[in-house]
Amino acid sequence: MGAAKSGGVPATDHALLAVYPGWGMDGERMHSREYGVPPERWCVTKQDLRFLRSEIEKAIEDRRIAPTDCDPFDPCDRKTGPCMYNVVQSYMKPLTAHAGGMSWALMRHPNGLDCDMFLTHCWAEGAFELIDKVIWSWPMSTKGAWCCILANPQNLDISDLINDPGSSPFAKALCASSCLMVVPTRATSNYSRIWCIYEAFLAVELGKTVLTASSPIMHRLAYSVLIGLGISVPSFASGYWFSVNASLSLRESMPVVLFNFFPLTLACCSIWVTRHPRVSAVINCIGTSASMILVGGSVYRAVGGWGYLPVLRMTVPSCYFFCNEVDRLCSLRQDKEAGQLDSGYAGVHGAAASVEADRKRILDEIGHRDVKVDHSIRVLIESGMSTRCLRRAAKLGVDLRHAGELRWGFVMLSAWLVSQLLEAVSDVSNWPLTVLLPFVLVLALIWVLSQHDHKAFMATMLIKITLLVVLISLPAQLCTPFQDTAMLNALRHGDNKTKTDIIEELAKEAEELSMLVSHSLEAGFSILLLFSLVGRGWLAELPCIGPWLVQALGPGCACCRCRVCWRAHNSHDQDSGSECSLSDNASDASEANGSRSGNRTHGE
């Protein structure tokens, strides 16, 4: 190897310095308590993870990482990849040992990074699975993330650093972070490991937001887009052909009838089948076909000189169905990841560790708060995330399944229905729009400043309140055309005085409809604004009706008030339960997990 101009360092090492600025430094000193980088700064960036993925791919091609008896991965697989145990032993340890013994994170950033996010995982996942989920779910405001595999020096003895869990690098990093991200895996539940349990315990004690890392949906979405295009093209052609060949009266009346009644029908169907993915997929296909038929007819009329505004209006249903399909795929993914977190989870006392002394120390520190930790983990599994607000609502008995699931289709459908209401009265008055605009601006501000779970709650509240407003004003909208037809017939055959009375009656009727829509929107959006300001947690604490109200406005249906009360009663009983019952549960869980205890990970 040749020597570089500066200091006789080999040229290959200079090349490594370009990608590993910490190369050649004293790793033991970098990680020492006295002179080293603080443990909470042993972080990596999103770009670091992308770089690591490419380096692992190269290592697989060079057979530096190869299948083993314990990890018989497929070298051609780029979705799951080798187990993280294998990556550490075959790639990370040799690399960091040659660099000076520091961790991979400090090899990339010798001065460390501020910790914005803490990653918790179980070491049994595939490297590509872990990296892809974290990159896809990376919060926009996050720069540095702390991950034990990358943060801890794999070639150094750090037993003295983790001897006291409360002062360990894990605890310090979690205290410094703003959120904790759980990376589920198909191999086993993260919470079958005691260190992941301890991280969940710290997150609850510190009031941290806990997120679930999700796998990308782009592969499945590509198939959905192809199917959508296959449906849209012939449907558009059919709509255009129908408009060319149908009679004038049929061309003018049929699309209007379809468009006026389509939003409400669509809303009812799409909302009631959100938890039935196959039915939802069929509705998306049928809805896409129907909306593209309307677009085809609108394009024909636009070419004939009717203007292109109806074309833009008719494309809204297609956009809604696309959003609904994205929501469906995200919901399927969340159900899968919730199952991964739940599979093998047997409570705090059922978790295991490679070092039994670590397990005892952690359980001693958790103490009587084990029920609280179990409760938080259950919230995470059911809702996809865990925040103070969600934990408070769950304690009061609210069913939080899918509570962290933000459905953009609901937002778009609500905007679509409100625009239809405003259009119905736009010829009479712009007062409904004037009333609505301040509410929309304030709600938009709340939306921007809110956490993900509150945005999801706002979206479900928005669609349910909007549907209620539509139902209130629907009878008047349905009766108005028939009344107008009768009055117009009378207008043709009446005298001048009668005609004047009829015209005044028509104007009065239109004004009443406008005021009904205005008052309905004002009342609905006032409630929405109030509940958005209060939040799910505080709203659930309202006496008597709080849990039911949150359940009714959240995802799903609150048909059974008794079920909510039963959940709240059970939650209260668990919080005040005896230590005897806890120890019984712990022994049952340990016995149930006895067959798995020999395969525990020992990363920490």
Automatic annotation (TrEMBL):
For region Disordered, the annotated ranges are 572-604
Keywords attached to this Swiss-Prot or TrEMBL record, sorted alphabetically, are:
Membrane, Transmembrane, Transmembrane helix
Membrane-spanning segments:
221-242, 254-274, 281-300, 431-449, 456-476
Which superkingdom? Answer: Eukaryota
* Compositionally biased tracts (Polar residues): 577-604
- Name assigned to this protein: Uncharacterized protein
Q: Give the species.
A: Zooxanthella nutricula
